[in-house]
Design brief:
Strand content: 25-35%
Number of helices: 2
Number of domains: 1
Largest sheet: 2 strands, antiparallel
Radius of gyration: 13 Å
Order of helices and strands: EEHH
Number of strands: 2
Oligomer: single chain
Shape: globular
Helix content: 10-25%
Strand order of the largest sheet: 1-2
């Protein structure tokens, strides 16, 4: 059984309604995971770069 919550997050200044599954992530590298459904048609991912959010968001 997997539980989900619906919420609004702010990512790079954009508010996005999305759904997260509730999973114990203590001890894991990332506290949340953003999936392809959330990112699709909203963002372009360049895997050659590292955390550019501080550079692009003002």
């Amino acid at each position: 059984l997997r539980y989900f919550i619906k919420c609004t997050i702010e990512l790079l200044g954009r508010k996005i309604k999305t759904e997260f599954s509730l999973t114990e992530r203590k001890g894991m590298r990332y506290p949340i995971l953003l999936g392809r459904k959330l990112l699709n048609k909203r963002f372009i991912i360049d895997t050659s770069l590292v955390n550019v959010s501080k550079q692009t968001h003002k």
